[in-house]
Every structure is written in C-alpha cells, then in structure tokens.
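Suppose a colleague, Dr. K., hands you the sequence of a protein chain of 248 amino acids and asks what its three-dimensional shape might be. Before reaching for any lab equipment, you can write down a predicted structure in token form. Begin with the sequence itself:
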Amino acid sequence: MKRYALVLLMLLIGQPALADDGGAAHATVELSNLLPPPPAAGSAAAKQDLQAVLAAQKSRTADEMSAAKADSERSVFRFADVLGSSMQAAALPKTAAFFDRVAKLDKAEVKDAKLYWQRARPSVVSDQVHPLSKEKPNDWSYPSGHATFGYSTAVLLANMLPEKRAAIFARADLYGQHRIVMGVHFPSDVEAGRIAGTVIAAQVLQDPQWQQDYEAVRSELRHALGLPATPAATLTAPKAAAETVVEH
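The predicted structure, expressed as tokens, is then:
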C-alpha cells in the first residue's frame, strides 16, 4: 500500500508541467524518486519474481505466445479488441498522433528510471528463461516500458470513454501480463510500469499543453465509437488517477 500512497501523494502535491517542444517529449516526472526499488538480486522477492516468469513460460500456449508477440507493438489500437472495429488508425488520425506522442513521453520518462536501476532482464538473470523476443543490449528491465504505455493509455482512454472503463483496464492488465509471457520482464517490472503509467497519464490530464489535443481526440473517439458527445458522468483527472491506483 505504501507505493500506492506515493502515487496519490505525488498527484496531490503536483509536479512541474510535462515539457513539450514540437512534439518531442522530455523526462520531468523523475520516476526514480517515485517508484519503489526493484527486488534486490538474490533476495526472496527476486527469486519469486523469476519463478513467476518460469511458470508463465511453462504454461504459455501457442495462442498466448501469438497474442503476447502482437502486444509488443506500442499502439493505442491494441485496445481495439475491447473498443470495437471502429478503432482503426486510418479512421482516427488525431487519436493516432496523440497516443504516438504519449508513447514518446513514456519512453523518455522510463529511460531515466531504467538507467537509474539497471535491472537485468530475466534471460540474463537465468539461462532457464527463453524469451520470445531479443531485447537491445543494456535495455534494462525495470520498470517495463510497455506496461507503462499500456497503463498510461488506459488511464487516458478511460477518462475519454468512462463507459468502457472496466474493459479498458482489463485490457491494460493483459497487455502488461504479456510482457511476462514473453519472458522479457518480471512481474515487479510490470507493476512498476502500472504505477509509472498512472503517474504520467495523470500529469497529461492536468497539463494545459495537452488539453486541446486531448479534447480533440476525445471527440474523435466518441464519435467513431457511436457514443454521445458527453458521457453521463465525467471523471476529473485527480479522481480518475486515484481510482486507478485503488482498483488495481
């Protein structure tokens, strides 16, 4: 519960605005000050983390492996399976551009945190792990960048489409779980990504530099999905982020 309190405290006291320069994202959240450290090498928690990866590897089916590989793509359109066939990049240019920008921001934020902790990937820790993809050298494991993107995307989509909130977060959970199925992340990496994604999305929701594009995407998405222009109950940014932490 302490890690959740950290997130809620950060949201209450605020952070500097997320800088944006012509679409380029700059790290300002400093996740290394907000996330708990990963399990220490050789600790009981680290061993439990590794066993979870090996268990997922042992039980993964051909369909699960295929789905996990597909989720290696960092795209908001991976949520199409819960949002419907209208969720297509060609038909939603504003949505595509906005979440590409979110992905760049996520990567910038996570990069500094990865360099800070420099946690080795599961296949480096144990030769029993057989990952389904080859990661770049020195692309560290903690926190998971994919999980960060999955949850930051989920928070933003859930605020745009509160009617579909439960399905959106369930999809984000699966998106994160697939990193363990892939054998490229530990469960604690994914959990850290969930917290990081929540923090980043809350910042986006509160940052005036993002608001015009956010509203344009919200309108585009709701129209494409056949939803009324204004949902019955609109969540405010701090409340939405806080509920995200409590529910998951």
